[in-house]
Amino acid sequence: MNKGELIEAIADKANTTKKQAEEVLNAAVETIMESVSSGEKVTLVGFGSFEPRQRKAREGRNPKTNEKIEIPATTVPAFAAGKTFKEKVQNL
User: Fold this and answer.
1) How many structural domains comprise the chain?
2) Would you write out the chain's pLDDT as a tens digit for each of its 92 residues?
3) Quick one: 72 and 52 in the same domain?
4) What are phi and psi of 74, to 5 degrees?
């Protein structure tokens, strides 16, 4: 499912227009991204949680030359599925 299909499904379930569904989806995604990028954890009970995670600096290798390179520490976004979401996927 792509974003357009998701918007259409939301519009059908919420009995609203596609434009309104798109605005709500965009606002929700933007708010989640802003919160996580400022260091906050966003939890949607039953669905899952989004949070920033720290990756330590580590040593890697250039696959072409096999030369060692230093990969710096960084912060990455992470998602952990909630219990209800996991159970729904397991019952496929």
Assistant:
1) 2
2) 999 999 999 999 999 999 999 999 999 999 999 999 999 999 999 999 999 999 999 999 999 999 999 999 999 999 999 999 999 999 87
3) yes
4) -155, 165
